[in-house]
Write a structure and sequence with these properties.
Blueprint (H helix, E strand, L loop, with lengths): L5 H53 L2 E5 L4 E5 L4 E7 L2 E5 L5 E6 L3 E8 L2 E11 L2 E8 L4 H7 L7
Antiparallel strand pairs: 1-2, 2-3, 3-4, 4-5, 6-7, 7-8
Length: 155
């Protein structure tokens, strides 16, 4: 009789299971490494968005100097400048501290400006063959607008 014993079949199945498990783990490791850069980029964009929103909405006045490519968010106690470099956005605070808040490819545009104050901006990020847009709209209060203008009352 030429047949395999139960022990031989069991050992063959065990070895096959170990090889398949090892190949599956190797596949998962390679897949994670391929996907990781895009996940990191999305995290960087999310952190950038939170930092920019905080500065944008807590500021009394926002101005953009296109010749210097600088977005300035200021209020009575704090001034934050966002320096738009070709491959990075750097935040500079009142204390002259520099912090790179985003590194990568992006586009920036001012969508709406009135009396030298920014009302709406947009950042565009290429992500996975598509474009991610971050659009921020600022509505100014009367007091912040009055602080921006020199108003003289005479009576």
């Amino acid at each position: 009789m030429n047949a395999f014993t139960l022990v031989e079949i069991s050992i063959t199945m065990l070895l096959s299971l170990i090889i398949i498990g090892t190949l599956y783990m190797a596949f998962r490791i390679v897949t994670r490494q391929v996907e990781q850069p895009e996940d990191k980029r999305m995290e960087d964009i999310a952190v950038f968005k939170m930092t920019l929103e905080h500065a944008f909405f807590s500021s009394a006045q926002i101005a953009y100097v296109s010749s210097e490519k600088t977005l300035t968010c200021s209020d009575s106690s704090l001034v934050r400048q966002f320096l738009m470099k070709p491959e990075a956005v750097i935040m500079k605070t009142s204390e002259n501290l520099l912090d790179t808040i985003f590194r990568g490819i992006y586009e920036f545009q001012v969508l709406k400006e009135k009396d030298d104050l920014i009302e709406e901006i947009e950042y565009l990020f290429p992500v996975q063959g598509d474009t991610l847009s971050i659009c921020l709209k600022k509505e100014y209060s009367l007091s912040s607008l009055m602080n921006h203008k020199q108003v003289n009352f005479e009576y």
